[in-house]
Write a structure and sequence with these properties.
Structural class: mainly alpha
Number of helices: 9
Number of domains: 2
Radius of gyration: 15 Å
Order of helices and strands: HHHHHHHHH
Mean pLDDT: 79
Distance between the termini: 26 Å
Low-confidence stretches: 76-83
Amino acid sequence: MNGIRYHRRKNGLNICVLSKRTGLSPNTIALIENTTSKTGYSRITPAPYIALSDYFGVPISLLIREDYPEIPESERSINIDANSESGYNPLVIFRHKNNLSYRKLSTILGMSHESVRQICMTPEIPEKYASTVDELICGNGA
């Protein structure tokens, strides 16, 4: 597990709360939590790392470390099938916490059932949907 996810979970924060506290979008946090040395840190500007470093009070070098211990499956609040949905996608987490079907979520978001399903399969929310999803997740107090 990388340092960002580790420190977020260690502090008992979900992506939405961390987003509100740092000013970063939930999609940005999910993206950098899923970025590794193999996928390339250069895809992301330094600003989110600086914001998270300031918030957690740790150097950036600790946030990009990839050798933190995984949280045991029994301690995870949501059990998501890794073969279908991305467990770190903020929309997936929101969907499961609120017991929403794809169809109900598609009605809320005003998009097709298939579009919602495809978004939930990706580790990060496509840019064209990011603001809509951010508003749903953070805008309603969930």
